[in-house]
Give the backbone structure.
Amino acid sequence: MTIDRTVWQGRVDTGEAGPTLRLHQVLRDYDVSQVAGGAVVLGFCSDEGVRRNHGRQGAVAGPDMLRRALASLPVQGTPAVFDGGNIVCADGRLEAAQAALGHRVAEVLAAGARPVVLGGGHEIAYGTFLGVAEHFGDRLRDEPILILNFDAHFDLRAQPTASSGTPFWQISQWLAGHQAPFRYACLGVSRYSNTDALFERAAALQVTYWLDDAMLAHHLSQMCERLEAMLDPVSHVYLTIDMDVLPGEKAPGVSAPAAHGVALEVVEALIGVVRRSGKLRVADIAEYNPTYDRDGLTARVGARLLHPLITQFQD
């Protein structure tokens, strides 16, 4: 698969001494036989889940805008980074697009690489998980996976039609059907963005959640310790980041901007704990909506969160 170089363009520091490479200069074409040990960027271009959930549409354009924001970021060393292209949700066929994403994620995992998926609405999460499920299968019974979601919303709606509000309910049902534990942690939950019914469902499913107004910077060391304890008993981690976990002034370009949110430095530090655990298998980012972005700020914040996930597997 050939990289779309029109979205991977950026500064070149010709003539400057020392290491000056930027991400667009080290990116490679996707070749499943060559990706082992590297990171593979995938795009999931979908607004369908957000449309079904009655949200603000526009996230379909998110993947390529995030690539543009990533392109000029400097890299340290020579990371192996590949672009595996986009999965496009066409004609409202969300379930087919999620299945296609799952197959691609499974292919990357089987090749010994880490998929990093750019969305798209948070319906991306069920597609990414389908890839995890295809790759690990029944091993998830004895090798539990922690689904770690940075999000203002539980996204646990129990509805017959899939949307951006249902992915973690769908995951819980898949795991239950395969007699595997459902270990779900949602960090940054807003008490004002989730109904009592959703809090009750989270309790019934034994979901671990932290409220946004408790995730303050002066509690960071305790939060890191709590997260390390959460990671200890699991074999794998699937990390998913909904950009609306951040304060609205930091991430205005999302489907549902947060009135409070969690500070960027807190989110970054906690993601670092996950990355250094050695258990991170796949990551994605959701709900970036370029239609409502201001001066590309949200794209730059998203790129900042994605950069270490793509270029540094462990510190």
